[in-house]
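Researcher: Next sequence.
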Amino acid sequence: MKSKFISILMLLFVVIDSKAQDIDTYYIYKNNDSIKQVDGIDYLLKLFKIKKSQEKIENKKVNFSFFPVDASNAGDRVLVSSFNATFLLGEKENTNNSTVYLIPYISFNNQFGIELYPTIWLKENSWNFVGEYFALNFPQDTWGLGGDTPESNETLVDGKTLRFHQNVLKGILPNLAVGLGYQYDEHHQLEIKETNIDADIPEITTNKTISSGVSLPIVFDNRKNINNPQNGMYASATYLYNDKSLGSDTKWQSLFIDARKYFSIPYARSVLALRSYYWTILSGETPYFDLPSTRSEPGTSSSSRGLQKNRYRSNAMLFFETEYRFNITQNGFLGGVVFVNTTSASEYDTQNFVHWQPAIGAGVRLKFNKYTKVNVAFDFGISKDYASVYLKIGEVF
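Model: Next structure:
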């Protein structure tokens, strides 16, 4: 069964248009007429009566964005700011934009910390450096293992999290890179505050866990702008090997396959975006909080809008999402999205995906910077027993 799912998702790698690229332009063209794009910076310059030429803004080496948003790892009721820097380390024609996201936050339920997500592309995409770093004080709820755990299982666990993930990839073909990485995850000062989990579900039996291992990623990416892809494709597969010789508490292995495809619809000035991932433990004894769970996938932790973070957890997960992105105003400042997704956590210690958890939602997009295509995203997602608002700099995927 496992090989079947891997084969299906690997097929997505061949559905590739190598000529696809994002078109960055100062004007929107429609019916042979040019419409000047407007973004949040334009309105700020006008509001504060600052005179600055468009040419000078367009030719900036580094573009910064700042906005209060929610942190993907912080749960609910969060006060947080997101800083985004977008820059180019080569020619626009053959080098992807590099981005760095810095997210410090504090919540009303004793959650605080800092997150950093750099994605750096060197000239002609010759090297790609992808990182993910956390330092979190993170009380969180959990519901046990399986694809349909009851709401009554909700259990609060206090604890702190440290994460250091760094992959280095070398371009070997146009848009294709392979690499090597290191991943370290530490959960410490773990304490169950109150538990309702049934006795037959494995409980958290230690106050500290460490996973330390090497990763082997392979990535295809022909998106020119990961802030807001207009077309193209991203596909990756990452094998992770944790071992005691590397400092890990236990030996275990995992596989994460992620595929995203973007279809530009020029006449409607819109984009259809699709995403799917398969995340599974291949072997070994995996610490409870390192098992696959909702809104915790490597890299983004932003899938499954409409489902609560960590609501479902098991040894394997499948996820599918479709999102339609469209402009509302002709000048490109205001846009919207509608989305539908479904998530399944396997029955624990199997590859049987019996229960599917669907969610739907919609959102608004405000163009913060028309040159980097960075949007401010306001989304609302809902499922059968949960609803939430999501604020973010950039697109969800």
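Model: The longest strand covers residues 155-173. The domain at 2-393 is CATH 2.40.160.50 (Porin).
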